[in-house]
Design brief:
Layout: H1 17-31, H2 43-50, H3 54-66, E1 70-73, E2 77-80, H4 88-108, H5 113-130
Antiparallel strand pairs: 1-2
Helix pairs in contact: 1-3, 2-3
Amino acid sequence: MTLGLPFTVQLKTGLPVYEQVVYAVTKAVVSGQLQPGDRFPSVRVLSQELRINPNTAHKVVATLINNRLLEVEPGKGTLVAQRSAPNREQLAELLDTDAERLVVQAKNLSLELEDVQNSIRKHWNRLVKEIP
């Protein structure tokens, strides 16, 4: 669902909502969609916009602060943190959980590694054309 939030998240069944939102925000920060100093929605706004439990929204924000993606500045609110560019190891770590899910799903569908690689290549090439 895409709402009035500064990032995009499409909630899917079968995956914890909190993990999906943390991933979506992390992806937005790493990709540059969210820039250091950008204001981040309050727990209340996040809860209302995504139609999730306020406790879940709080857990999302707390996790992002703990992961140093967000920071709280008195008088300003919650902002995207100023940070140095992530190294390859940190970026690869973002993919680890999704890569495992992809492998499990591919195995459940009886796909071969080549099928998965072709699918990834197709999406990679499409994104390269969209994002300069």
